[in-house]
Design brief:
The structure holds two protein chains of two kinds.
Chain A: H1 7-16, E1 20-21, E2 30-31, H2 33-49, E3 56-58, E4 63-65, H3 66-71, H4 74-77, E5 84-87, H5 93-104, E6 114-120, E7 134-135, E8 141-150, E9 163-173, H6 175-195, E10 201-204, H7 211-223, E11 227-232, E12 241-250, H8 252-256, E13 259-260, E14 268-275, H9 276-287, H10 296-302
Parallel strand pairs in A: 3-8, 7-13
Antiparallel strand pairs in A: 1-2, 4-6, 5-6, 8-9, 9-14, 10-11, 11-12, 12-14
Chain B: H1 4-18, H2 24-27, H3 41-55, H4 72-83
The chains are: A alpha+beta, B mainly alpha.
Chain lengths: 304, 84
């Protein structure tokens, strides 16, 4: 057992130094002031890096139209990760009392709620695609977002959160525009993390698709090199944590949301995203819990 | 054991239901590439699951690839290997 990369020791260290605050449910801990400052400073650094890219900037709430989830076949591919918002639709005092009593008795009060038109956004880029409907300009479009996402995967690992932030860039256009853009960002992301003196490396990856069908999807995704990740060891030396991912969707999203390239063909899309909490944790793991002790050059980049 | 004709017939029925090729699933030749004919990777997953149910088999990991599901002939070869 290599204590250098012990998950519990790292979690305890984050708590001891006030960087995170434990909560009752795994994967939902609070973030302290310094942890949050690191997240914000990294986001600013990404802003400076991409300042000349001309990305349109949007912010979306953590909930999205549930039709988006349906259209991208999320329930077929990732049913185990989805989160849906349900509310109370009753009008009588008696039924409200039933709900409260059920909760008081520790019962399954969720059964008395009904599904709303929103779900928790499982990916920062999802709310963007419906807004791109129509024909793109000849140069395509580039959008950036910083959104909260939800994945139902409760875990004691500090790096596996149920709710976290993704800073994403989404590129839509022709395949000839999208693929080189993805390759450019893969290199740029690696250089950025190396400049922050993180032991980062990139690899072909696949999504955690559900079930037996998912195995085939994952193999096909790897085979076609549709997904890459940048990894940094945080809680394991042998299984480094993905802190950044790059996904080429081909025409999957564009065909679902009627997005066309200027030549009339169905557009292609790709996105790249930084897992903000994981970036912060990679920095704390690599450079220590005390930001004052971080290497001078790293501090210069984050706090210019 | 089921005859090859019988197996192909069952494969075509699964393709008709899940491959998204329409009636072409009935006429496509056994060696023709299903992906080139228009079967998406999303559809091929449903074809795989449909075949598992129809033939009461489970494709091992090494068979879960594009090549195995690329034609009626290649699917038939995999099924014969798993049921022999």
């Amino acid at each position: 057992m290599n204590d250098l990369y012990n998950s519990q020791t790292f979690y305890d260290g984050l708590v001891y130094h006030g960087l995170i605050v434990p909560t009752a449910v795994p994967g939902t801990f609070g973030r302290g002031e310094i942890f949050e400052d690191v997240v914000n400073r990294f986001n600013d650094l990404v802003n400076r890096l991409a300042a000349d890219d001309g990305a349109e900037v949007y912010f979306f709430p953590p909930v999205i139209d549930r039709k988006i989830m349906e259209k991208v076949h999320y329930l077929e591919t990732f049913p185990h990760l989805c989160g849906s918002v349900h509310s109370y639709f009753g009008t009588s005092a008696a039924s409200a009392q039933e709900l409260a009593s059920c909760a008081d008795e520790g019962g399954e009060w969720g059964q008395l709620l009904k599904q709303t038109e929103v779900v928790l956004s499982p990916a920062a880029c999802y709310p963007v695609y419906p807004t791109l409907k129509g024909t793109l300009p000849s140069e395509g479009r580039l959008v950036t977002v910083l959104n909260w996402v939800f994945r139902h995967e409760p875990s004691q690992e500090p790096t596996r959160l149920q709710s976290f932030r993704m800073r994403e860039f989404i590129r839509v256009g022709t395949a000839e525009q999208v693929v080189p853009w993805r390759d450019m960002w893969l290199q740029r992301g690696l250089t950025l993390l190396h400049d922050l003196q993180l032991p980062a490396s990139s690899d072909v990856a696949s999504d955690p698709f559900f079930g037996r069908g998912g195995k085939m999807r994952a193999l096909s995704q790897k085979d076609q090199k549709l997904k890459f990740e940048i990894l940094v060891p945080v809680i394991s030396a042998t299984e480094p944590t993905a802190v950044c991912s790059f996904n080429y969707h081909q025409d999957h999203f564009a065909s679902a949301f009627d997005i066309f390239a200027s030549d009339g063909s169905v557009a292609h899309s790709a996105c790249m995203g930084f897992g903000m909490e994981r970036i912060a944790m990679a920095l704390f793991k690599t450079h220590g819990f005390d930001i004052a002790q971080w290497p001078y050059k790293v501090r210069q980049l984050l706090w210019p | 054991m089921a005859s090859i004709v019988n197996i192909d017939e069952k494969i075509r029925n699964i393709l008709l239901k899940h491959a998204g090729l329409g009636s072409e699933a009935q006429s496509i030749s056994v060696d023709e590439d299903l992906h080139r004919a228009g079967m998406t990777s999303m559809s091929s997953v449903n074809v795989m699951l449909g075949l598992e149910g129809e033939f009461d088999i489970e494709f091992p990991d090494h068979m879960l690839n594009k090549k195995v599901f690329s034609s009626i002939g290649s699917i038939r070869a995999a099924i014969l290997e798993l049921t022999s």
